[in-house]
Specification:
Elements (H helix, E strand, L loop, with lengths): L11 E5 L10 H10 L4 E4 L8 H6 L6 E14 L2 E10 L6 H27 L6 H7 L6 H10 L6 H4 L18 E2 H10 L3 E4 L13 H10 L3 E5 L5 H14 L2 E4 L19 H10 L6 E2 L22
Parallel strand pairs: 1-2, 2-3, 3-5, 6-7, 7-8
Antiparallel strand pairs: 3-4, 3-9, 4-6
The chain binds adenosine monophosphate, zinc ion (ZN) and fe (iii) ion (2 copies).
């Protein structure tokens, strides 16, 4: 096992996915992988759900700290163009009714939308069934699950090919959109639930559209705490531009792997967040608290998360 403190000190990865959404590793197994990767702190940020938090907390290896989180599907109207973007929410109270209801609506819409994609494929004679997609998605359903079934059915050679504009990628014949929260509303919802928000991978929009600095300024005015600058999808120029923007707007700078398992190249801890930035986020979030493992994978004593967030209706 890698030493937790070798060289760079505390290692913090604030963006990971489990099978509660479109990650390939279950939440408990993910915590073990985090310890093996030498992480000290990890945030579990599944898409539109907190369902993985309780099983992750219950399986924490000694010394590993779990920061509760979620990655929220959002949209912004930037000069007449609707742009999809992702908001990382941390340390919110998962039971707070308004934000909780908003997450439930997002998950419900993901089901409707995945069914529509399957129907579009079936209408053209492509053998993808909703039953199979539902079975492959252990929790919140996403296009990666549809893509996986398309690979199984031999329609495409890879998940990446499924995401191309020829298939279910943005603008493709089998693409369908899903409900998304207005990002300013989402930032306020997170804050009202005691949480803090960080703009996830601003340059990694799969629609190829990037929001302008004015949008980020509006997000900052609404209460955004930080920007995820160091992300595997960002090149050095993009990171530099984001670092300047964050400095201008007084936003914290985070870094994270956005680990999904073998479906993406990056490993856990591929990008990390400075411990001082983590301290600042922890100081600003009051809706829930991090949990630190006290024994070999059995830190379930501080049960405080609600695990009734499933993948939507089935
Ligand atoms: P959805 O949220 O259902 O629209 O699906 C988008 C999600 O699919 C993103 O958040 C990524 O996690 C994942 N994704 C996007 N492009 C790819 C790709 N080429 N290969 C694997 N996963 C992808
Ligand atoms: Zn994902
Ligand atoms: Fe994302
Ligand atoms: Fe993500």
């Amino acid at each position: 096992m890698t030493s937790r403190t070798a060289g760079g000190g505390t290692r913090v990865d604030l963006h990971t996915h489990s099978t509660a959404s479109d990650g390939l590793v279950g939440p408990a197994a993910l915590m073990a992988l985090c310890a093996q990767a030498g992480l000290d702190v990890v945030a579990l940020t599944d898409h539109d759900t907190t369902a993985g938090l309780a099983p992750a907390a219950a399986a924490l290896p000694a010394g590993l700290t779990l920061v509760p989180g979620a990655e929220i599907s959002c949209r912004v109207d930037d000069g007449g163009r609707g742009i999809s973007l992702h908001l990382l929410a941390y340390l919110f109270d998962a039971a707070e009714p308004r934000f909780r209801a908003a997450r439930a609506r997002l998950r419900e819409s993901r089901v409707t939308r995945a069914e529509r994609i399957v129907a579009l494929l079936a209408a053209d004679g492509h053998g993808v069934t909703w039953e199979r997609v539902r079975a492959v998605a252990g929790g919140v359903v996403g296009r990666p699950h549809v893509a996986q079934v398309m690979v199984e059915a031999g329609l495409v050679g890879s998940v990446a090919e499924a995401f191309s504009p020829r298939w279910i990628g943005a603008g493709g014949p089998y693409f369908a959109g899903k409900d998304e929260l207005d990002v300013l509303d989402a930032i306020r919802l997170v804050a009202a639930a005691g949480g803090v928000s960080v703009f996830a991978h601003p340059y990694a929009s799969r629609r190829g559209a990037v929001v302008g600095a004015d949008v980020v300024a509006a997000m900052a005015a609404a209460g955004l705490a930080g920007v995820e600058v160091d992300h595997p999808d960002h090149d050095p120029d993009q990171r530099e531009a984001l670092r300047r923007l964050a400095a201008d707007l007084g936003l914290l700078v985070t870094g994270s792997s956005d680990f999904h398992g073998a479906s993406k190249p990056q490993g856990l801890g591929a990008e990390t967040t400075a411990p001082e930035v983590l301290s600042e986020l922890l100081a600003r979030g009051s809706g829930s608290t991090p949990v630190t493992g006290t024994g070999p994978g059995d830190a379930g004593s501080q049960e405080q998360h609600h695990d009734d967030e499933d993948g939507g209706r089935s």
